Records
---
Amino acid sequence: MRVVFMGSPDFAIPSLQRLLGSTHTVQAVVTVPDKPAGRGKKVTASPVKFAAQRAGLPVLQPLSLDDPAFIAALQGFDAEVFIVVAFRILPPEVFTLPARGAVNLHASLLPSYRGAAPINWALLNGESRTGVTTFLIEKHVDTGQLLLQKEFAIPDDMIAGELYQALSLIGADLLLETLDGLESGRLQARPQSGVATAAPKIYKEMGCIDWTQPTARIYNLYRGLSPVPGVYSYCQNRLCKFQRMRPASGPAQGDPGSVVEIQPGAGFSIATGDGALQILQLQLEGKRSLTAGEFLRGYPLTKGDRFQSSVA
């Protein structure tokens, strides 16, 4: 089938690559405009644009998705289907253009976790399974008729960045299977059923740790927000980001937020509301990332030292 691909982040690249290696024809790629990024605010293209350019594909970067010039350009490709992977919300003027509609790849088992951050929220809520879904785009976000779904069992120690990579690969395979099924006529869309849950946008402030919470809740916060935006606390009024941690074994004696165990060369543990978490890697604001053993050599801690959710 003739396809126009729409996406921006690296999550979408495996899907684009699978399509380029298939019998389907990617006629063009739509992605976000170049924008400033990083500390130096250097104007940078999206990962999908770089991938499209390497493949020699035409690239469209509209400022507005309802721009008549953009819509006319899309019509010129005469695509049978649009493929959308981690892109913007399409207006009806766009998603109704192709004869077979617009297929979206979403990183959850819809109707669970509709919204911008399904991967993060699955981990924040301690889910043991998630998956990917292809569906036909309709007016309301993530509510369209289902095409295919693939389940994924989440390892207990998997963080958001790792789940992101895993689902991008699984999703690429599912997307190709979806297109093949639509082309052959074997695949029929069906309405979503079950309880819908939301996965709203993630904010940096959500990563501030409340040590009075149970160990499992804090650990899931870490898993759901790592590596970006990350979880953090304050020690001696300095922001400290925790990059690797795990539940500590055995009971912990100490007030929540206090250092309860120190293992030189290995790490240290911080008390929670019902136990403790062992810190394995961390980074003080403005400093490089260190293993907990390296950190202890440069910034010695003693039992009872406190990590807090705000500056004293």
---
Amino acid sequence: METAKITHAECQASLSRVALATGEGSRDIKINLIASLLSKASPLEARYIARLVEGRLRLGVGDATIMEALAVAYTGS
């Protein structure tokens, strides 16, 4: 298992800055923020950061499974 090269707080802060970047030049700012984050990340971290940014974080769990897990979590059955 690889050790983390970036902290959760650092990742969250960078992704928040990406989300909040607007206006002229925001595309370049977003690219630079994501590139900086990926360059600091381990290969495994970079994989999941890229999947998160692309909206492809799904790991084989469908909506029905999530709904059932929520029902069990909140009702106990």
---
Amino acid sequence: MIALGWWMAKIFACGDVVNYGNNTGLLCDAKLESIISGADYSVCNFEAPIAGFGRPISKCGPHLQQDKKTLTGLKEQGFDLVLLANNHIMDYGRAGLKATIDAANDVGLDTVGAGLDFQSAYKSLVRDIAGVRVGIINACEAQFGVLDGSGTIGDAGYAWINHNKIDAEIFSLRKECDFVLLFAHAGLEDVHIPQKEWRSRYKYFCDLGVDVVIGSHPHVPQGYEAYNKSLIFYSLGNFYFDYGYAKNYKNHSYALMLHLEKGRTISFEPVHHVTNSHKVFVCEDEVDINGLCRSLVENYNEKLDEISLAAYRHINRQLISSGSQLPFDGTLFGSLKELVATILGRRKASYKRLVQLHYVRNETYHYAAKHALDVLSKNYVA
């Protein structure tokens, strides 16, 4: 439903936020704060729960949390909504999620994408913004914390992007809103092109009625494309992310200022940013967005083959290691690492089962392995 009128809403959207090193919670410099607070509504992906609540859940991979002041700082600097459908929001269980939602609400931030039960996790958000009625959906690929139907009634968790409930939410919002935005958290990390399966899924969302799909999770920027009258931004990369190995990352990427005017096609302006000394700055060294968009077309299949093969080698090593009773992953260096981890007691049978679950359940890894095996099978001679 697109109503005619002269109202226009400006919505600022950016990528992943994980804060360990900024103890003020004020992540943005004055210029960027002015841009964010100048929007009618501003959104970021809050990639981990606040610290001090809950216990680490059983999972493979790191458990992330962040300073509670981050929520206060985001609100003070102009943010209105934190997205919670991501692969780390449940790292400290139900208690960690509840504390995060409560703290966000206490400072006046909206939340969407995760909840203390199925219905609240999948509930979309509707807001009247500068005279424009906007529906917002947030969902993530299948990782630890996903509510994909395999748990028990009453489980806390986040919305799964491939659940048919997402499709139903789009239909519902299309009837009552001027615009529908879907924020997706999915894809291979640290690569600059999306997988074809996610491209197909996002276009399907647009066919159902989504006006803009905005992606995160790859940690690096990716291109965008127009699809019919909709826009798909495959990854905005990190906004502020300083956990562990990434503590010195520049997070050179871009955010969006979307212009939503009733009766008109959505337009946007990129906001290029970089992290320095635990703050995010507007930067003049622009991300080559045009180049990222060209990579969705030029040599796309060859690049997809390459990243899928690399991902498959990683997946295969993980499955070999987790399926073996010996400290072995198929490589000499990796096997030595597994031996050390086994001696230190970090490779118990239960942990190995979690690794297997992770790589078997996750659709991004499934897509990568399938694509790689398709490529490898073409070279097979009987």
---
Amino acid sequence: MPTVVRSQAHTLLARLAEPRRFIHVLAGPRQVGKTTIAQWALGRCGRPTRLVSADDVGAGGPGWLAQQWEIARVLARESRRRPRGAVLAVDEIHKVPGWTDTVKRLWDEDTAARTPLRVVLLGSAPLLIESGLNESLAGRFEVIRVPHWSFAEMHKAFGFGLDRFLAFGSYPGAAPLVRDPRRWSAYVRESLIETTLTRDVLQLSRIDKPALLRRLFEFACTHSAQQVSYQKMLGQLQDAGNTVTLAHYLRLLAAAGMLMGIEKYSGSALRQRASSPKLQVLNNALATAMLGDDPRTLLKDPQVRGRLVESAIGAHLANEATVGNCTLHYWRERDLEVDFVVSQGRRLLAVEVKSGRRREGVPGTGAFCRAYPSARPILVGTGGIDIEDFLRSPVSRWLK
């Protein structure tokens, strides 16, 4: 299997070479390679390193973290290499009770003592990582966001073509199982979906209606790349909740790196927040695993294939937005719609996906561009940019 070095690995290596300024945080969903990224960068940084995990035996709390930190301090002080210092990397940091206060105290002690110890924190629970960082470690950290794998990475590592990518998504750990779809589906459901919902959402946030959150997740996965009003969702989910609760749960699922509700593009931020969301998984594996059938069989239905194409393109853009390369919306006025609106500074892109499925709305790129003259329209699919070419390319290529 060809080695895939993700761009975040190069980013981390470059930051470790800089003067000690910030704690470096690798944050992202489960099973996207954060530990591998850290191992690659630490192996090339030229300093003594210590990589530990809170999953290790005896990792019981702040005392364990302080012990690991002290060992790394000794490495830093005794280092005679050039450049001097050492690196401590702590995986699954969110599993250490009270970790933020402990990290703050130890980091500040090193800053005062000028101890040349650099620190990398990794975690599979973005919800807890981000809340802890913002509450206790403000001004002391930089986040390197690690998104789901792209089509280009899955092709290079596992030889995925377009159909396999549409059907099985982009979890590298699940890729060797695609020849056995039932086994693949069980792995995605039990090891990825259930673990994320249970450990990263339900245990780490206040959820008054856990059954509603689970039904919302299932509904969003099976309606990926579709605009659905909150009222319609409530009717479908058959729960006496409210739209505020659904919007909150969608934000939690987005923070866990699973799916998101894309907001409508508007000149008013208030109108964007009040709009009906366009549901979007961040990895096609979530959509096909929840649909239940053999993913390869799903592609034989033109309507389902069309939705999976739109879902894959939406996930590609959504992951770019997650790491800060752009912002993502959709647009609709009456029966006119633009599938995805991508913005980067003053640059604006109206993306229409022609996937072959029957649509409720009418392509509205012309109307959108008349309303927003700076927008550049592009068509992906039949008669436009090749779908594979679009999925292989960073969004910056089309925003030039």
